[in-house]
Amino acid sequence: MGRVTMLGMVNSEYEVRAAQAGEYDQFAGLFAAAMMFESSPGELDRELFEPERALVAVDGGQFVGTAKAMTRDLSVPGAVVPAAHVTAVGVRATHRRRGILSNLMSRQLREVPEALAVLWASEPGIYGRFGYGSAAWGVSYEADLRNIKPYPAPSDAGRLEELPAEDAAAQLAPMLQGLQGKRPGVSGRSELEWRRRLEDKPDHRGGKTARHILVHRDEAGALDGYALWRGKMNWAPGGPANEVSVEEFVALHPTAYHALWHHLLTLDLAGKLEYGHGALDEPLQQLVANPMALTRRLGESLWVRITDVGRAMAQRRYATNVDVVIDVTDDLIKANNGRYRLTGDTDQATCAPTEAAPDVSLSVRELSAAYLGGRPLSEFAATGGVTENTVGALNKLTTALYWPVAPVSIEIF
Ligand SMILES: CC(C)(COP(=O)(O)OP(=O)(O)OC[C@H]1O[C@@H](n2cnc3c(N)ncnc32)[C@H](O)[C@@H]1OP(=O)(O)O)[C@@H](O)C(=O)NCCC(=O)NCCS
């Protein structure tokens, strides 16, 4: 139970509990209202709902807060691990700033069975207080197709084709798994999640075309990359200036990467291309003679919250050999507090409680931010969030935690 003071006058009790199976529409309605969009849940949304992993705050029989966790996996440095995918976080406008989110978050984080929780934040100021760290940068691209000058596609380009949506899920799924093996930050999808991802309701297209499912086959005919994209006709005074929106891009080999992007960057009548999920080390600009025509904007991608330090740190791999004692503080999950000896390399890792003197001290937020290998720990030492107790230990730990391939989430969930 929590207590809210409404309009500064009326006290009312609210209850926080797990949702029930039949409550999806009410749950979705509250979240949609908080985000200011029209709720229109479909059958697949209802099927995907895990009521026992969804929390609601209820005041006088009315939902006033929601937060749910989805059971999915996530690629992390050197492994693919279970991660609670947190979403649908919302508080009714009449009940804001009275602690409902704090109540939902602290209960959710204490209860998740996974060693990690991850989310996309609507605003970067919300989740740090709960121990989440911004763990991956995302690059949004806007390409001026009239001036970008793509280099020619490779001559051994294999071939491109479009798949009908009905057949696509089973064929795309192995490629997404392949990407998880290469890049941290990528969420896995069940068969049901794939069906939901590929749903293409006409009233959700925002004036754009139906989704194109473009795939690349290598010379042997095996699929090794895909792009999901839509177009939008735009006839400007100066001539055709159609817009290309790339929703998702996966390529497992350089040839597929180049051939798919070359196709997208050279579509007839197109003047602009947008893609919102590039990684910090996205090689796209290497494919064009004029990268100045490729505007890049950096934003927060995935946020990570370690809920079980020992388990989480042993689940990932490390870029170099590491053997350090870390002292972790966690205001919310008391069991995380303490010293751990972390040992590991590219093949294995252990992280167990110890009484030894700490080499590096930090809070769970900084450790979570560095977890996917995309934020150097030294960055947080520079502002006092991480303290080096043994000279040289911070560099060693920073290098081991960092990863040669930058993490990025390619889907907002
Ligand atoms: C963001 C939201 C969930 C916050 O819920 P809430 O119940 O008002 O939050 P709380 O009262 O528990 O606030 C806890 C703390 O977070 C702060 N906070 C809340 N929302 C914040 C925001 N958008 N930006 C920065 N800080 C915020 C509060 O000021 C409070 O700080 P304090 O502990 O120093 O006093 C709610 O405003 C909302 O539904 N917003 C619209 C939908 C949305 O953005 N959801 C998140 C999707 S990722």
UniProtKB/TrEMBL annotation:
Residues 14-152 form the N-acetyltransferase domain. GO terms for molecular function: acyltransferase activity. The keyword Transferase applies. NCBIfam families: PRK01346.1-4. The lineage of its organism: Bacteria, Bacillati, Actinomycetota, Actinomycetes, Propionibacteriales. Homohexamer; trimer of dimers. Its EC number is 2.3.1.-. It comes from the Bacteria. Acetyl-CoA binds at residues 89-91, 97-102, 122-123. The keyword Transcription does not apply. This is GNAT family N-acetyltransferase. The active site is at 127 (proton donor), 413 (proton acceptor). It comes from Kribbella deserti. Belongs to the acetyltransferase Eis family. Keywords: Acyltransferase, Transferase.
